Amino acid sequence: MSAAHAALRGAHARGHALDLVVLERTGHTSYSACGIPYWISGDVAAADDLVARTYQQHRDLGVDLRLGTRATAVDLDRRTVTAIDDTETSTMLEFDELVFATGAAPIVPDWARTDTGALISGVHPVKNLDDGAVWLDLLAPHRNVRDAVIVGGGYIGVEMAETLLRRDVRTTLLTHGTVLGNLEPVLSDRVAAGLRAAGIDLRSHTEVAGVQVDSTGRVRAVTTATGDELPADAVVLAVGVRPATELGAAVGLPLGSDGGYLPDPTGRLAPGVWAAGDCCECRHRITGAVLFAPLGTHANKQGRVVGDNIAGGRAEFAGVLGSSITRFVADGVHLEISRTGLSTAEAAAAGIDYADLLTESDTASGYMPEADPIAVQVVAGTADRRLLGMQIVGGRGAGKRIDTAAAAIWGGLTVDDLAAMDLAYSPPFATVWDAVQIAARRLADRL
Amino acid sequence: MSAAHAALRGAHARGHALDLVVLERTGHTSYSACGIPYWISGDVAAADDLVARTYQQHRDLGVDLRLGTRATAVDLDRRTVTAIDDTETSTMLEFDELVFATGAAPIVPDWARTDTGALISGVHPVKNLDDGAVWLDLLAPHRNVRDAVIVGGGYIGVEMAETLLRRDVRTTLLTHGTVLGNLEPVLSDRVAAGLRAAGIDLRSHTEVAGVQVDSTGRVRAVTTATGDELPADAVVLAVGVRPATELGAAVGLPLGSDGGYLPDPTGRLAPGVWAAGDCCECRHRITGAVLFAPLGTHANKQGRVVGDNIAGGRAEFAGVLGSSITRFVADGVHLEISRTGLSTAEAAAAGIDYADLLTESDTASGYMPEADPIAVQVVAGTADRRLLGMQIVGGRGAGKRIDTAAAAIWGGLTVDDLAAMDLAYSPPFATVWDAVQIAARRLADRL
């Protein structure tokens, strides 16, 4: 829905008059999915705070927004969409331009479902506002939740670990590989150590065999493939998402290897048919490879591109670097975790000769109370010395430094450029050579 | 001394064996001058914490470091330096290579001196460790300092305002123009409002006529040009610094319009004669103009370049963008202040057609407790859409975002590039479009 919202803004920004119908399956629109863990933790007071634009605001802008309405079929020849609303009334809508902004759906393993296909009570994903409401109910004091198991060690898994600790729930995190597995192993290890220091029972390389329920059908334990039985009054499903592309797949629109739409840089899938957001795959700026990277940042940019283009513009989505950031802050542990560009594994997979180095330094001058450790991992091309990637794990102020590297990669700069550039210094904010520069300089010295 | 320290490191990094004599006028070496306000405030426990490399560490590295020793004359033909130590013993040293790393000296107005030329008691700059010790003594409890006047509204002035508030001293700040006058007026106004909100009596456009002393010769008030008499048990001299280039000037080495040395990009002033750090002027990367920008970041980079080159390397200093950052944090006010590249005034002075825009947004998603206001001022070239400069004034996490702009400017990127690039997002750290991107995008839409 971020993509749809951005598309509207893009079209409006060009002053384009559209008869615009928006179909939204749930009862909510234009909300921050990334904020849901912080709503459940109590950082955010109410669901309404997560909503960027309300139903009424959309209506006031002239958008015919239809909540609780699910598109069930598309006919590209007749230019129609069939939709069913929550009273089971079917409608057929004609279109000149069609935008798929259907997002992604949480992956639900078979073991999480009852025989009828419903989610087992107490087992739930964290994807949309309805999920958030379910979690607030699951964690309400009268439920007396003492133990929870998180299945999945990606961003949502780590964020929910923070959330559950802050809700005073004993938490086990299971992940089939390592936690935040897209980090270099040495940095993933640091995140693992932080989670454990805060009291998370982290179990890497662990598969779920199934869940056990009590006489009311409610989850009471998770069983691992090695036979461990972990008590669980609640289970967080955080094993990833898949692009929601059934509608387009049914009419033969091309899909990528992860099942996402493959629009061109203008967002176009076919004449008068567009896609934006988590239902799409996108192009990596360094390798040119297509990947599934469902993030709000891309969704917003893609949505704006599509909105611009429907309104007669010629915008293009410029691709992704794989930039991301999260944190784990609980019980005296403060970890900021970010990355951009290629990891060593990704560089190797792309056939690029690279060198890499891990550097330890400080977020501020060592003598300042603001100084926290920061570990910076840099990857650069051996042939052209170009910065290819950076990953950061560190304390306060560490994470957003990744943007400096993202800008440098975006500009095609070398590690020498990054080491030489004029970054801002003052003792509470940085070392004289900023941590990202120390890392770049040390790698440059070895290239 | 940062420059000298970096030169040593540079030479050592190349494994170059040098008979190295370092003459240092004061009793201290390789300390962080930028940390002194935080030492005086109590954030830093001891002067030793500010020292990056001690006398003994230098000696252990084989450096013949001579503290309390002042170079008094240079003879470029005979390749000699004359020096006097603190026992008034004169020595003559021969050299093959000579490095000026003489730094900058605080400007001391005539009204700050007694008839004999000494500083009036209680009136003091904040430049080196000896100054820091003087300030710790001036602010010791038995001195009973209640009122202080800071003369100068640059970085040191603002940092000392924070320091004095944290030491519970009633503080007036006088500046001949506006506070942080290298900021756009609208942003300078915000800093002024923050200072006042924290209790600083800020008086802009105010000149000092003189100081009044008590019967012991100690300062008791500052008189302004308009006749106001401001009580002052202590007066901070923060009216800037000038490059310390007397030695080179006496032998005809070329100086810039601000009196600083003008080395070439390799740091060379003349055959076998080099300069690095605050005694130099340097080249602005955008305009090509030479300017005096005495900052530790440049000094360290220049020192390393000179060290590399003396050891047979071919390094070059790549120029400056005018990046800087400071903060004012006291009494519930938290302001982070940073800039890079050209201000509107600097772009105009350089004859560049520019457009600029101020954008207000948040440091984190608006619904998060981490969200603080951030004002971002962007300047871009009208003809080529290149990002020319950015200034930021905002709350927690605002300041170091300037590095993203610095990297973009370093790479010659446009505001469109900055708006499109893949920066890291998560609700505690940023808005979906980062504040610097919102600013760039809005300006791009108007270009």
From TrEMBL, chains A, B:
Family matches, as Pfam families: Pyr_redox_2 (PF07992), Pyr_redox_dim (PF02852)
Domain FAD/NAD(P)-binding: 5-283
Keyword Transport: no
Gene3D superfamilies per the UniProt record, alphabetical: FAD/NAD(P)-binding domain
Keyword Flavoprotein: yes
Cofactor: FAD
Keyword entries, A-Z: FAD, Flavoprotein, Oxidoreductase, Redox-active center
Domain of life, per lineage: Bacteria
Domain spans labelled Pyridine nucleotide-disulphide oxidoreductase dimerisation: 334-432
Family recorded in the similarity comment: Belongs to the class-III pyridine nucleotide-disulfide oxidoreductase family.
Protein known as: FAD-dependent oxidoreductase
Source organism of the structure: Skermania pinensis
